[in-house]
Amino acid sequence: MPPLVLAVANQKGGVGKTTTVINVAAHLAEIGRRVLIIDCDPQANATSGLGVARRDIPASTYDVIVLGRPIAEARMHTAIPGLDLVPSDIALAGAEIELVGVARREMRLSYALEALADDPLDYVLLDCPPSLGLLTVNAVVAARALVVPIQCEFYALEGLGLLTHTISLLRRELNPQLRIAGIVLTLHDGRLTLATQVVDEVRKRFGDLVLDPVIPRNVRLSEAPSYGLPITSYAPASRGADAYRELAVNLDARLQADAELMTAPLLA
Question: CATH number of the domain at 4-262, please?
């Protein structure tokens, strides 16, 4: 059975996409799942957040998407057993210009992932940039489902309409099989009434798609990337680690119970 490809995406920046990718992946590896992160963001925060220095990168997502090199050439082990990474590089920032004349340019990542059809991986997590450009489109086209982090603030509610419209557009034009695996509420400050109102509104609108628990604002979560570690390794007893550990278990249980999603072919 091929690995399940999940794109972690939101066109709004600062909502905790990379934090969610790194820590969910690390916790999934902790419970025995085999996970590959593909860093599709030119800022390469998932790459640095896992302690990978630019000088140690033999090949990157740029080489895979733009130059067409095999994904195996860019894949590398991390310090977390069971967790691999395809790192990003600043060169990826020019991908949209370089691919402008390439046929089926939105399928480049999908084609690269075909090589993983017989890989013993359980999950592939795609860390998307905070935009709806070609890199995010490549990730969404390659994915079987989306995980959508939403920050618990007013502007997040404003962006929900645009997000649902965009997902509908992508389904219609590029990936009819696309599903929402779950919505993750992040950066919740329990002292703020507004944050609680946002949680209530998102739950009212999306119901069972909202994953538990809500991820709190946590100093340890903010510090961990500067040490190149997921929260599992940096502060495993912190509130942030507990929240992401529970989130990973809940997401894994939901996905494993979804037989249609789990047994779908790698490409739609």
Answer: 3.40.50.300
